[in-house]
Amino acid sequence: MPDSNNNDEKKSQSRRFLFRNTRSANKAEAKAVDGAEQKELMKRDELSEQMLSIARRGTDEQFEEIMRKGANIRYIDPKHHTNILHRAASVAAFKFIRMLVDNGYDLDFLVKDHQGRFPSAIAMEVADEPELAEFLLEKEIEQAQRLGQDYQALLIEDGPWAPSASIPSDP
After folding, report:
1. Three-state DSSP string of the chain
2. Dihedral Cα 41, 104, 17, 88, nearest 10 deg
3. Of 69, 70, 75, 71, which Cα lies nearest the Cα of 19?
4. What is the dihedral of CA 55, 56, 59, 64, to 10 degrees?
5. Per-residue pLDDT of the chain (171 residues; tens, 9 = 90+)
């Protein structure tokens, strides 16, 4: 049985680095790294953007290949503030989303897009897919509870959700 404290620490570390791989964060981080590291960060962003496109119209095999190449599953498109769940929900890709969940990918269900919508809202409003919306809503609520967040309060917050607000500060 895995050590729950170790798992909690890994999840906490994962949340701390959520924005390290968004384009704007990479630009700031790139100032502090050498040229080779900067190229690697930018390559990962490009792979992650391709991953978002695959979520909308690609195959599982294409997705698996882009992940092997180093795409970041928690990547957030800096222009529209969407992640893989928003993109897949917009085309009612329930099977794809289920595959992500079933394979244990480190997904962030609590990201709001630039219009303040969670993935469940995209599934309803854009794709008109109530079953997918219900599935995503359950996952959003579960994740909020695990993070000690009030889901109802997150719903009424203005603008994109700031994951850093839920990240415990380092001592």
Report:
1. CCCHHHHHHHHHHHHHCHHHHCHHHHHHHHCCCCHHHHHHHHHHHHHHHHHHHHHHHCCHHHHHHHHHCCCCCCCCCCCCCCCHHHHHHHCCCHHHHHHHHHCCCCCCCCCCCCCCCCHHHHHHHCCCCHHHHHHHHHHHHHHHHHCCCCHHHHHHCCCCCCHHHHCCCCC
2. 70
3. 75
4. -10
5. 445 455 444 444 433 333 333 444 444 444 555 677 777 778 888 999 999 988 888 888 899 999 999 999 999 999 999 999 999 999 999 999 999 999 999 999 999 999 999 999 999 999 999 999 999 999 999 999 999 999 999 988 865 544 433 433 333
Check: pTM over 0.85? Answer yes or no.
Answer: no
